[in-house]
């Protein structure tokens, strides 16, 4: 691995971006045979195949996807190092995954402060549910992510950053929900599998021996709140986000038991903390 150089990684990333050797060679102002040779040498050095043919193009193998995440980070860090040495200011991009609830309720003031302090650093925000964001971290597709309990961190580093209060919501005028039995046979409106809030709700119902009537899955909180307001079913949502939702007053709130009501959002990342990520961490609240 110590013999791998940044030029090889740059060629590799370009082949991935262009989907083939010929287009990558044109972009790099190299002859295709040179690009092919460099990729073959890289594969020999790693003792793996990085690409496989699909039609007229090339697609990454699983080892190739792993290398791509590392390569992009190494190239970015090299660019950052050069820029910081020359100018004294951090530049580059931080790929940040986030729950939609966190992005909507928590991140606007944080990102505003970050931009004011580091105008030459860009943040690319990628929304998703906890399970999907953790997989993206494992594949080095993002630099860090805001995810919610419960989750299994494995080898990831974690920093608790926000205390959240969860609430059940239903259409206005529906009967009060005082316990899990009140939800028996009801439709629940939630994110797809992999959502931490959905997991907490379904585990609570299962522990109480309660089965929902059916489960409707939606990809955004706006859709969930709108469907609940239209008496489609019952949802679970961050109270902080509901306070800021445009139609947040169109639904009825129901208090959850304490073991389900209180939750935490964590910032998680893989490997060492990069300078851009450290700059973000410096702006986050510190929880015990």
TrEMBL record:
Keywords: DNA-binding, Transcription, Transcription regulation
Pfam families: HTH_1, LysR_substrate
Entries under InterPro entries matching the protein: LysR_HTH_N, LysR_subst-bd, WH-like_DNA-bd_sf, WH_DNA-bd_sf
HTH lysR-type domain location: 4-61
Gene3D superfamilies: 3.40.190.290, Winged helix-like DNA-binding domain superfamily/Winged helix DNA-binding domain
MF annotations from Gene Ontology: DNA-binding transcription factor activity; transcription cis-regulatory region binding
PANTHER family per UniProt: HTH-TYPE TRANSCRIPTIONAL REGULATOR (PTHR30126), HTH-TYPE TRANSCRIPTIONAL REGULATOR GLTR (PTHR30126:SF40)
Family statement drawn from the similarity comment of this UniProt entry: Belongs to the LysR transcriptional regulatory family.
Stated name of the protein: LysR family transcriptional regulator
């Amino acid at each position: 691995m110590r013999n791998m150089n940044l030029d090889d990684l740059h060629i590799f990333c370009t082949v991935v971006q262009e989907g083939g050797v010929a287009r990558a060679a044109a972009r790099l102002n190299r002859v295709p045979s040179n690009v092919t040779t460099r990729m073959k040498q890289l594969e020999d050095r790693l003792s793996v195949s990085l690409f496989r043919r699909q039609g007229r193009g090339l697609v990454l193998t699983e080892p190739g996807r792993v290398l791509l995440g590392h390569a992009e980070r190494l190239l970015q860090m090299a660019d950052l190092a050069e820029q910081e040495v020359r100018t004294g200011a951090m530049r580059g991009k931080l790929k940040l995954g986030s729950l939609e609830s966190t992005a909507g309720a928590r991140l606007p003031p944080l990102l505003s402060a970050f931009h004011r302090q580091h105008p030459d650093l860009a943040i690319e925000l990628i929304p998703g549910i906890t399970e999907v964001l953790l997989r993206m971290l494992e594949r080095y597709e993002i630099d860090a992510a805001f995810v919610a309990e419960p989750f299994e961190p494995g080898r990831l580093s974690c920093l608790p950053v926000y205390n959240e209060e969860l609430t059940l919501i239903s259409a206005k005028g529906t009967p009060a929900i005082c316990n899990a039995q009140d939800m028996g046979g009801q439709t629940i409106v939630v994110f797809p599998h992999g959502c931490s809030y959905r997991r907490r709700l379904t585990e609570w119902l299962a522990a109480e021996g309660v089965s929902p009537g059916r489960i409707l899955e939606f990809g955004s909180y706006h859709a969930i709140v709108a469907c609940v307001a239209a008496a489609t079913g019952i949802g679970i949502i961050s109270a902080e986000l509901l306070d800021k939702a445009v139609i947040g007053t169109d639904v009825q709130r129901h208090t959850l038991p304490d073991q389900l009501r209180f939750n935490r959002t964590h910032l998680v990342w893989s490997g060492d903390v990069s300078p851009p990520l450290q700059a973000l961490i410096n702006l986050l609240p510190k929880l015990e």
